[in-house]
Amino acid sequence: xxxxxxxxxxxxxxxxxxxxxxxxxxxxxxxxxxxxxxxxxxxxxxxxxxxxxxxxxxxxxxxxxxxxxxxxxxxxxxxxxxxxxxxxxxxxxxxxxxxxxxxxxxxxxxxxxxxxxxxxxxxxxxxxxxxxxxxxxxxxxxxxxxxxxxxxxxxxxxxxxxxxxxxxxxxxxxxxxxxxxxxxxxxxxxxxxxxxxxxxxxxxxxxxxxxxxxxxxxxxxxxxxxxxxxxxxxxxxxxxxxxxxxxxxxxxxxxxxxxxxxxxxxxxxxxxxxxxxxxxxxxxxxxxxxxxxxxxxxxxxxxxxxxxxxxxxxxxxxxxxxxxxxxxxxxxxxxxxxxxxxxxxxxxxxxxxxxxxxxxxxxxxxxxxxxxxxxxxxxxxxxxxxxxxxxxxxxxxxxxxxxxxxxxxxxxxxxxxxxxxxxxxxxxxxxxxxxxxxxxxxxxxxxxxxxxxxxxxxxxxxxxxxxxxxxxxxxxxxxxxxxxxxxxxxxxxxxxxxxxxxxxxxxxxxxxxxxxxxxxxxxxxxxxxxxxxxxxxxxxxxxxxxxxxxxxxxxxxxxxxxxxxxxxxxxxxxxxxxxxxxxxxxxxxxxxxxxxxxxxxxxxxxxxxxxxxxxxxxxxxxxxxxxxxxxxxxxxxxxxxxxxxxxxxxxxxxxxxxxxxxxxxxxxxxxxxxxxxxxxxxxxxxxxxxxxxxxxxxxxxxxxxxxxxxxxxxxxxxxxxxxxxxxxxxxxxxxxxxxxxxxxxxxxxxxxxxxxxxxxxxxxxxxxxxxxxxxxxxxxxxxxxxxxxxxxxxxxxxxxxxxxxxxxxxxxxxxxxxxxxxxxxxxxxxxxxxxxxxxxxxxxxxxxxxxxxxxxxxxxxxxxxxxxxxxxxxxxxxxxxxxxxxxxxxxxxxxxxxxxxxxxxxxxxxxxxxxxxxxxxxxxxxxxxxxxxxxxxxxxxxxxxxxxxxxxxxxxxxxxxxxxxxxxxxxxxxxxxxxxxxxxxxxxxxxxxxxxxxxxxxxxxxxxxxxxxxxxxxxxxxxxxxxxxxxxxxxxxxxxxxxxxxxxxxxxxxxxxxxxxxxxxxxxxxxxxxxxxxxxxxxxxxxxxxxxxxxxxxxxxxxxxxxxxxxxxxxxxxxxxxxxxxxxxxxxxxxxxxxxxxxxxxxxxxxxxxxxxxxxxxxxxxxxxxxxxxxxxxxxxxxxxxxxxxxxxxxxxxxxxxxxxxxxxxxxxxxxxxxxxxxxxxxxxxxxxxxxxxxxxxxxxxxxxxxxxxxxxxxxxxxxxxxxxxxxxxxxxxxxxxxxxxxxxxxxxxxxxxxxxxxxxxxxxxxxxxxxxxxxxxxxxxxxxxxxxxxxxxxxxxxxxxxxxxxxxxxxxxxxxxxxxxxxxxxxxxxxxxxxxxxxxxxxxxxxxxxxxxxxxxxxxxxxxxxxxxxxxxxxxxxxxxxxxxxxxxxxxxxxxxxxxxxxxxxxxxxxxxxxxxxxxxxxxxxxxxxxxxxxxxxxxxxxxxxxxxxxxxxxxxxxxxxxxxxxxxxxxxxxxxxxxxxxxxxxxxxxxxxxxxxxxxxxxxxxxxxxxxxxxxxxxxxxxxxxxxxxxxxxxxxxxxxxxxxxxxxxxxxxxxxxxxxxxxxxxxxxxxxxxxxxxxxxxxxxxxxxxxxxxxxxxxxxxxxxxxxxxxxxxxxxxxxxxxxxxxxxxxxxxxxxxxxxxxxxxxxxxxxxxxxxxxxxxxxxxxxxxxxxxxxxxxxxxxxxxxxxxxxxxxxxxxx
Length: 1747
Description:
Helix content: 10-25%
Strand content: 35-45%
Number of helices: 21
Structural class: mainly beta
Number of strands: 109
C-alpha cells in the first residue's frame, strides 16, 4: 500500500540509501517513463516512487533515493510496499510415517517485476503408506498376461510388504469404447467377442483398494478376458476415472498413490482421429462417471482425455504412474512417460511373467525421486524451485528418504506479458491460490497477488480546484490541467500569445535563450529536461566531465553545475570524501608518510620504492636496490669496479666497514656480489626505508670471501680424464658393434645425424614439364633411429624482390585459394584413385565434412572443393597411405591463422573426427607454400612435393627458393637447407583456347560437343587439362561430369571435348515450361610449352532449340573473338556483398592504358544476353538494386581508343538475406470445436533460407480485439508447416498469426481469425504418435516444448502378431484431395494420396466451408480403354504396355502375402529377417525363406516348420552386396504368394580382400526406396490416372516401372503394365475399371539390379446413389454430357488460379468443351483429408454458385 510514514531516523536511512544508490539505468527507467499520474509511475517498475510535494519542481516519477536527493520530503513520497507473511507453519515431525512440508500456507503481495525468495522443507519418511492400483488391458491379446497375474497375487503382496507395513492393493480393467469402429457391434460379438470372454466394456473398477490380499487374489481368479477391433486401446479413459474417482477407488489422503498401467498396445487420445467419432464427441469433463458396479458409463458421449489433461490430473491427486508395457508398444510409452514429472517405464514380457520384478525396480526408482511443481498458478506469476540436491533428466530431485530436504523457492511477479502490462491482465491472472506440490504430499498453498492498486492521492483529487484557476484538478501535489490550459496553476491558455518580455534575458534578443517557448510570461524549456533555468539558460549536458563521463556518473547536472551524490565532491564529482582509498595495510592513513587528498595519498617523500599509499614496495626493493648500490659500494670500500676513480665521488651515500653484519631478516636487504678484480665475494646490508640519501651510510663487511688457491691443480687432471674417456668411447664405437648400438640410444650420441636436400639447384623447362609440382628428395645421413620431422617452405618469384609482400598487401580481404594436402590414417585403394567410385564419394564427403567443421572457425572461409586422393611415392613406411588434396577459399590475410590451425590438428592427429597421420601436411598460398615431411625409423630418403606456381603471367625465367626451416621433432640437425629452382619459359609452342565463350546445345541431344583450338606457333606437342563445373545445371542430374587431358600432337590444331547430357527433369511451369540450364568447361595446367588463350572458360547452355533461338537472338554459334587489342583482361576480379541489395565489385587494372571499364552482371542461371551493363572510370563499382539472397555472375573488360579488351574471368557473389515476406495462406482442418490443425504455405519471397516459424494464437472479442496475451509456439523445423492445437475454448473466436524467420530475422505475419464452432468438422487420421507438433492451448509459458513429437520408426518384434507402422519415409502422414471440374468430359477430376500402412476404406463426405485448396495443373490426356485398338499418348506421358494377366483370387485356405519384411543388421555379414503373420482361413504350417544375390548366383532356401516363428537369422552374407529375400507362408491349402525385399549391408572391407570386412568397422543397412506417393485422378466412371514420383534411392539405373492393378477383395485377374523411362514423375492412365469397387495398385521400379520395393495404394471410384458417375441432379444446368465414345474425347483444361483470404480458399475455374460449353464455377469445399488409404466418394456436399 501507499507508504506515508515518517520517523526521526528516516533521514539516516535515506542517507544510507543514497550511498548505495541504484544504478543510473534503473533511475532513468522511472525518470524517462512518459507517465502523467502516480499510478502509472509506480507501475513502471518495482523501484519507482512518486513525489506529491506541492513545492517539488523536479521530475515527480523517479526512484525513492533520487526523489529524496532532489528535495522531496519523505512524507510526500508514495511507494507501493510488498508483503510476505507465513500464515501456517508446523514443524516437521520426522517420527511420523507420512510425507510433510513446512511451511504449509503463506500470503504474498508483490509489485510487478518483484521477486520473493523463501525456503521450503520437505520430508519423505523411510516408510510411508502405499496404495497400489493395477490397471490392466483386458483385450484378447493379454489373455496369457491375465493368467500370470492371477498366480502372482502373493508375490505382489511380498513386494509391497518389503516397502511398507501399511499398504492397500486394488485392480481395474479396461478395453475401449463400445462403439464403431473400436468394437465389433454385431449382437453375438457384443455378447462374447472371443470364446470364453466377457462382453466388451470401456473401464471397470474390479477390486477397490484393500488390505486383504486374499480378497484381492480370490476376486482376480474370476476375471475373464474381453476384446475389441482396433489395435490402440482406451486406456486414457481408465486412467482419468482412476484418478478422479477418489472415493470409488479408495485412495487414502496421506499415502503414496501408485498406478500400474499394463498393456501391449498403443493408446487413443483426444481427437486422435483413428475413429469416426473423433471431433463428434464432446470433450471429457474430467468428472467421475462410475456406476454402482464400478463401470464407466459416459464412454459414448465423451471423447478420450488428452495427454496434458492426464498429466495435470495425476499430479493434482498425487498419483504416480508406472507403465508396464511390452516391447511392441514400448516406443509409444517411452515418449509418453517423460511428460509425467515422476513416473517409471518398464518392458513387460509377452506373458507379463516379469511384472513383479518390474514393479520392484519401479518402486525403488520412484521412491528416490521427488518433483515439486506449481499448480493453478496465475499467468502473472513465475515459480522456480532449486536445491543443492542434484536433478534427474526429467527435472525431478534425487532425494534421500528419512531426511528433511531444503529447497529454495523463487516467486516472481512478471512486469509484462507479450507487450501488455501485467496490471492490464484479467483479475484471475493477477491473483490466485498457488499450490506448490511435491510428488508424495499435499504441499504448500500460497495466496499470491500482484499489487496493482491506485495511489490514494488520486482517489482524493480536488476537481476544478481554485489552486488550478478552476481549469484543472488538483491531484497528488500538482495540477492536472484540462485540455486547452497549461502552466503550474493552469492559468495559461495554450491558444493565447502573451508578452515575451518577462522571458528575455538581459543582453539577449531571443526569448528563453532560444531554448524554449514563452507561455504566459514563463519559459517552458525544450529538450525533455535538458535545458533549465528561468530563461532556459542552463544546458544540463554541459557540466564538467571526468574521462568523458558527465559529473563522473556520481551526480547530476543542474543549473550548469554538478550536484554530487553524498560522499563525492569536486567540480565534476570526481573527488570522494571518504579516506577509504588511502587506508594502508595497518589501518592507518598513507602509512604515516603523507596525507590523503581527493581519495589519493600525497607522500611527503617520493621514492622509486613507494606505492600509491606511501608504503615501501619491498618486492621492488629486492629486485633493484642491491644492484643500484653495488658499484658505489665496490669503489668506496675496495677501490675497484666500474666507478673507481673520480666517478666514485658521485655516489650519494657513504660506506662504513664493520666486522659483523646483521642477519638478513633484520635488515631491508642483504646484498652479496663477486668482485671481478680478484674473484672474491663481498657483502653489505641496506637498512631504513631502502632509499639511502646523501647522509646515509651503508654497512660493508671488512673481509672478502675468497676461494682457496689449492684446488687449481685439479683442473689439468680433470681435462686429462675427460680426454681419456672420450678416446675409450671412440674405440668402442669403432670396433664394438654391441657398444655402438647401446651408445646410439644415448641422446648425446644420437645428435650426429643430419637431414638435408639432395641437390641445391634444379633447372626446369616449362615446355617439357608434365606436372605442376616437383618431387624434391631429402636425405637423412648418419643414424636412422627414431623419427625426424622437417618443416619446409617454398617462395615463388624470388627474382622479384618484395613481390610476395606486395601481393599480400594489395587486398587482405580478397578470397584466394589455399591448397591443402594431408596424409590420412587409412590405406589407399584403387577405388579411391577413381573419382567416380562410391568409395571415393563416401571418403570425399567424410573428409570435407570434418575439415569444414575445423576451418569454419576462420572468418571468411568457404567450404572445401576439388577434393582428390592420391599416393605419395618415396614417403617412407607410409607411402601406401592415402594423401588428400583439396582447396579452401579464404581471405588472403588468413594465411598465418590457417597455418597455425593446420599444424595444431596435424600434431593432434585428427581434424574433428577425421584421423590423419602426424608429420605431414602442405599448405599452398598464391605465392608461397609451407609443409612438413617425416622420416620414420629406418627411412633414409623422402620426397618433398614442391608446388611450382606455373602461371601464364610468369617471367621468362623465374626463381623459386625451397628452404628447410627446422626440425621440430627429432634430434637431427639441418644440413643442406636451401634449394634454388629455376623455371625457364621458352617460346610457346601453341596457344590453346575455346572458339567462343558460349555454346548452345538442344536438350534433346545426347552429347554436347565442344571444340578446342590451338594456334600453332612452333610445331610441337601441347597439352592442357579440362574439367566441367556446375552452374544452374548440376552434375549427375543434367550432365555427366568429366575431366581429363587433351594432347595436341605436332600439327594438330583442333580437338573436341564430349560431355554426355542426361534427360532434362520436368520443366518449370513458371518459365513457360522450359528452363535453360548451364555448366562451364574450364581449361588449365598447360604443358609442353602450351599457353592458355582467351577464352579459356566456356559456358554450355542446354535448352529447347526454339527457346534458345528466341532467348539468344543475335548470337551465333560461330562467334569468333574480335581483333587483337593491346588492352589485357582486368586481373583478380573480386566481388563482395555489401548488403541484401548491393555488391561491391573491384579488380586490378590490366596492362595498357584503359580509358574506362565496362561491367556486365546478371542473375546466375539467366542468359548473359539479359545482363546489365555498367560503365566505370575506376577499377571498382557498386552494383545496386539487386535481389536479396540471390547469386549474381559478373565480369569486366577495359576499353580504350582501340576498342574493348578481353573480359576478365567470371566471378560469382551472393547478396545478403532480407527478412522474408509473410507466409502463404493459413488453412484450418477443424477436428472438433476445441481442436484444429493449422497449416500454412511458405512465404512467396523467402529472401533467404527459412529457419523457423512462429505461430501465435489468442482469444479475441466481437470487435476482433485481443483478450489477454497471445500464446507463442516456435516451429523450428521449417519443413513442418503444420501445428495441431488442442484444448481451445469452445465457441470462442481466436486470432492466429504466423510469421517466418531466416538468417536476417523475423518477417511480417499472416493473420486469420476463426471460430471453430462455425466451421465444419472433419475426422482426422493421424498416427498414434504423429509427426507434427501438438500444443495444449491451456498450458502456460512461451515457446513451450511440444507435447509430442516423433520421427522414429516403429518396428514389430519377432513373434509379434501386431502390424507395424510403415518405415518408408516417403509415405505422407496426411493425404491430399483436390477437385477440378473439366466440363467437356463430364468427369470429376480428383486426387488423393494413399498410404499403405492400413487398409481402412473411408468414404469422407466433404461439407460446407472452404478451408484450403491447391492449384492443380492439368495437362492434355487421352483415356485408354481395354479394346482391340490402342490409343495414342501425347509426349507428356510414358508408353503403356500390358504385360500379363493372372488370377488375383487366392484358393480357399491359401495364406495371403506376409504383410511386412523388417531387416535388422547383426554384423557386417549377418542380419535378422522378420515378417508379420499373413491372414489365412486355415492354420499356418510354416514359412519358406529364399535369398540370393541380386545380380544372380546360388539360391539359398530356409524352411521354417513352426508358424509361430516369424523371424530368422541369416549368416555368411557378402558385405556391400545386395540380396533379394522372398518370404511366403504355407497352410494345408498350399503355398501363398511371397513378399520380396532387397537389402544391402554396407561396411568397410580390407583393401586387398574386398569380401573381408575390417574388424570393428561400422556397418549399416541400405535398401532401395519405393516410388513416391501414389496420386489418383478420376477421369471417368471407369478410368483413372495414376502418377508417382521417382524413388529417392533406386538400386541402380531405373529402366521403367511395373504397375499391378487388382481388385482389393479379388474377383478378376490382376493386370500388370510396364511404364518405360526414368522421369522425375511418371503417369499412367488405367481404363476399364468398375464403379464402387476398391482396387489395389502396386508400383515397383525396374532397375539394372532388378525390381525394387513396392508402393501400394487402394482407391475406389464411387457413384452417387449407385447411379452414373457424372449425375449431379441437384446442380442442373452446370454439366451437359456430350455424345460419343469417352475414349475418343480429348479434354483441354487450363490451370486453376486460386486466391486466398483469411484462411479460406475460393477457386474459380473456366470450363471449355470445344467452344460449345463455357461455364464459370466457384466452388467452396474442404480440401484436406487425412485417411491413410482413402475411398473417394462422389457424394460431396458442396456449394456451387453460377456466375
